[in-house]
Specification:
With 146 residues, the chain is of the alpha+beta class. It has one domain: 60s Ribosomal Protein L30, Chain: A. The chain is built from seven helices and four strands. It starts with 5 loop residues before the first helix and ends with a helix.
Length: 146
C-alpha cells in the first residue's frame, strides 16, 4: 500500500473517503450489485410495469430495503411506496444530481446475496404471423400475377 501524499489528504478532506466500487454504488443508487434482489429502470417504475414482480420479491425478502431514484417524481412512486408500507419494507429516496443512472428502484439487502439475474425483463408479446403472410411479399404477389 502506498503512502498518502498531501494531495490525497486534501481530496479526502474535501470529498470524503473514497468507497470501494464507487461507480457501481453510483449506478445502483448507493448500494452494490451483489446486495440487490431486483432492480427496475426509471421507465419501469414510472409505468408500473414491474409492480407485480416487485411485490413478489418483497414478500420473499422481508429484511430488504427499497431505494428509489430521487429524479423520479413522487406521483410515480405512489404505488411502490404503498407496497413497501404493506410489506413493512423501509424505503429511501436517493438523490444524487452528479450521477446519471437509468435505475429507478432497487430492492436490496445490507449484505451480499449474489443473485445472478437482478434486472426485471419485460415480456414482449409477439403476434405470430401466418406462414402465408411471411412469404407473401409485394414482389411474390406480382410474380403470381404475371
Amino acid at each position: 500500500m502506498s503512502k498518502k501524499n498531501v494531495e490525497d489528504y486534501l481530496t479526502e478532506g474535501i470529498y470524503g473517503t473514497r468507497l470501494p466500487k464507487q461507480e457501481e454504488r453510483d449506478y445502483f443508487l448507493g448500494t452494490l450489485r451483489e446486495r440487490i434482489v431486483i432492480a427496475l429502470t426509471i421507465g419501469q417504475v414510472m409505468t408500473d410495469k414491474g409492480l407485480q414482480k416487485l411485490e413478489e420479491n418483497m414478500r420473499q425478502n422481508k429484511g430488504a430495503k427499497l431505494l428509489f431514484n430521487g429524479k423520479i417524481a413522487s406521483r410515480f412512486l405512489k404505488e411502490e411506496k404503498e407496497l413497501a408500507n404493506k410489506h413493512h419494507i423501509p424505503y429511501t429516496v436517493v438523490t444524487n444530481e452528479e450521477v446519471e443512472t437509468d435505475i429507478g428502484a432497487v430492492l436490496a439487502y445490507d449484505h451480499a446475496i449474489d443473485k445472478e439475474n437482478i434486472f426485471y425483463e419485460e415480456k414482449t408479446e409477439q403476434k405470430e404471423t401466418p406462414e402465408k403472410d411471411k412469404n407473401d411479399s409485394f414482389f411474390n404477389k406480382l410474380k403470381r400475377l404475371f
